[in-house]
Amino acid sequence: NSPLSSPVVVGAAFGIDSGKVSGIIETKDGLYVLEVLSHAAADSAVFTKDLEQYRLRGLQQARQERVQNFVAGLRSAAEIEDNRAKLFERSAAQQQQAGS
Known about the structure:
mainly alpha
């Protein structure tokens, strides 16, 4: 994951003056220290044009995360019994009977 996808890191980057170094920034993905070289003004026309794309990307990421959490919950609650050995035994017995 890019640190720029973390709102904590992005917020810290915009809160630091040019030429300054941040303190340690702790996120769920790790620790970061930022050095801000310069700030560039945002182009609001481009942002407005691409806003729907940003919204759809965020929505898709949220949906994907919900599905991943759902599947993880199913896996943690599942009680799985491995019966492959029995299946292999039956298959071997059937092949032996067919070969006789």
